[in-house]
């Protein structure tokens, strides 16, 4: 049962930062913390996957600070987060022999993270007098910390 909670949480991370969750899962697979051998997700174990996904995660962390970055709730951004949450949830679920349930939990978590993260950030920015950068950096830190905790706990 706990594996489903972890899949949900990695989905929440994808909702906060779309590329942080797959980067963490790819590193865990590459390091052997998550065994994806024989699954449709085994490509995440290849050395190139964590490298590419980490670069994309860093780029996302930087571009998120730009005022021209679109809202996470626009269709393309939202769909990307749900997709990434589902894939990462499936990887977590695979470790417990239930990738389909993990996929569903990850997708649900991504919706929670996307909408909840948006509302939390909006309210915190308003409460701090419109200062978005500190709140964005806190959100980055939370996403990274939760992602690392999830993949470390799965092992």
Overview of the molecule:
With about 160 residues, the protein is mainly alpha-helical. It is globular, with a radius of gyration of 15 Å. Helix content is about 75%, strand content about 0%. The protein contains 6 helices and no strands. It has helices spanning about 1-15, 20-30, 50-65, 75-95, 100-125, 130-155. α4 crosses α5 (about 100-125).
> What's the helix-strand series?
HHHHHH
The count of DSSP E runs of length 2 or more, i.e. the number of strands, is: 0
Number of helices: 6
Give the CA-CA distance, first to last residue: 15 Å
Q: Which segments are poorly predicted (pLDDT under 50) over 5 or more consecutive residues? A: none
Using only C-alpha atoms, the radius of gyration works out to 15 Å
Shape: globular
Estimated helix fraction: over 70%
Biggest sheet architecture: none
Protein name: DUF4126 family protein
InterPro entries: DUF4126 (IPR025196)
Organism: Kaistia terrae
Keywords: Membrane, Transmembrane, Transmembrane helix
Short description:
The protein is mostly helical and 155 residues long. It has helices at 2-16, 20-30, 48-63, 75-95, 99-127, 132-154.
Features:
membrane; 155 residues; 74% helix; 0% strand; DUF4126 family protein; transmembrane helix
Element layout with pairings:
Blueprint: H1 2-16, H2 20-30, H3 48-63, H4 75-95, H5 99-127, H6 132-154
């Amino acid at each position: 049962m706990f594996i489903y909670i972890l899949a949900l949480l990695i989905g929440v991370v994808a909702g906060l930062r779309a590329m942080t969750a797959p980067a963490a899962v790819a590193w865990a697979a590459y390091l052997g913390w998550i065994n994806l051998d024989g699954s449709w997700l085994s490509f995440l174990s290849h050395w190139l996957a964590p490298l590419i996904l980490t670069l994309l995660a860093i780029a996302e962390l930087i571009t998120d600070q730009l005022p021209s970055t679109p809202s996470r709730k626009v269709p393309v951004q939202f769909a990307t987060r749900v997709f990434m949450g589902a894939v990462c949830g499936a990887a977590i679920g695979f470790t417990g022999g239930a990738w389909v349930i993990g996929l569903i939990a990850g997708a649900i978590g991504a919706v929670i993270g996307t909408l909840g993260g948006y509302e939390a950030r909006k309210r915190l920015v308003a409460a701090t007098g419109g200062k978005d950068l500190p709140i964005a950096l806190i959100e980055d830190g939370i996403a990274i910390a939760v992602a690392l905790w999830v993949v470390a706990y799965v092992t």
